[in-house]
Amino acid sequence: MRRYVDEEREQEYIDDVGFVLAAVVWFVFGAVVWEKLHDGVAVSQVVFGVLVLTAVRAIAVALATVRSPLSGPERVLLAGLGPRGTANVALALWAYIVLPPGPGDTLLSVAIVVVLGSVVLHGVAAPILVSRVDSRVAAGAWRQSN
């Protein structure tokens, strides 16, 4: 593989290619979402998607951060606002293509609910959760300094 002499330019090029590829993934996902939402999404898939966004994610983060130095509020922030983006979309699209129509459709519908729900959750909950964690961290720092 050829390497550039200027590593900074090489890194910028890699970042640009990554951005374009992510944009293509989101464009394809948007087209598939448009089609799937016209077909409708089952209530059970929405319920499962909401469970993934809340309880399942919280349990996974709690288990993954057992030995970490993160505080409780920081873990809540990570569970609520952790990334569920391009990798999920790419894997869901790949599974939709590879799996038979029934399971592939179900998986894609749940992925759509999770990703769109995540966008809504981040937009609504992020300011609230960040301000709460920020105020608790600031209060803890103030107590330690006094």
Automatic annotation (TrEMBL):
Q: What is its main location?
A: membrane
- Compartments, record wording: Cell membrane
| Biological processes annotated in GO | proton transmembrane transport
Q: Which domain of life is it from?
A: Bacteria
Cited Pfam families: Na_H_Exchanger
| Family annotation (PANTHER family) | NA(+)/H(+) ANTIPORTER 1
Question: What is the name attached to this protein's record?
Answer: Cation/H+ exchanger transmembrane domain-containing protein
Q: Which organism is it from?
A: Mycolicibacterium psychrotolerans
